[in-house]
Hints:
Radius of gyration: 18 Å
CATH architecture: 3-Layer(aba) Sandwich
Number of helices: 10
Oligomer: single chain
Largest sheet: 7 strands, mixed
CATH class: Alpha Beta
Helix content: 40-55%
Strand order of the largest sheet: 3-2-1-4-5-9-7
Amino acid sequence: MNGDFKTAAQTAKDYYDSEDADAFYAAIWGGEDIHVGLYESEDEDIAKASARTVRHMASKLDLKPGAKVIDIGSGYGGAARYLARETGAHITCLNVSEKENARNRRMTAEQGLEGRIEIVHGVFEDIPFPDNSFDVVWSQEAILHSGDRDRVLKEVARVLKPGGDFIFTDPMQATTSDDTSEYQPIYDRIHLSDMESIEFYKTTLEDLGFETVEIEDLTHQLRNHYARVRDELKSRRHALEDKISPDYTDRMLNGLQHWVDGADAGQLSWGVLHFRKP
Length: 278
């Protein structure tokens, strides 16, 4: 995809900065994170499953105290706080939503981690750091919002040190296809024009010189997660109606069902993708 990344970034910013979206993600997702969880049971707590994803990804890295990590599209910063607290690494959070960044700063301060976490407003198509700045680039459910994902991956390659790791998750299409009409109800939930595939990420990153460390296909967890989020929102809609507008809730419930249906139909994929820069 090589569209207007500034327009896509503004769309994402407007969406995540909205009162409804912020209230929804903070209340339903558990407050720390906005990403897909790894579930041990269908009715497991969303926050617990989301935290498990972070631990699982971190277990694939050999982070030492003082290592430099950038989380691109960092949301509320839950992953950054875990990595800073558990490994002693210094984490830079790069994120386009001012509302999410404000919540991140507040929660980071409450946990006494300001000295290990830097929160920067910006876009991942133009990462505001010099070449070879980071030991690890980390991302969860963020790159799909870009209007130029090739450019994002080139920026990742630029700021990552030789030998550094790029580890990320992203909701993806099961296959690369020019006909995206069947995906439109899925795209509409979070104002996307398309998504990429595992094949796209693997091919593009290898063309940039990366080696593939591991592609862990966990697509069933995508279905589990969006079904769990939908059930949680449905059960709590009346308790949250003073924070989340009924129109937003109705649209979100409908949109989440499209994601569940898409997963059931084999249209979607998700997993942990791990690459290394030589």
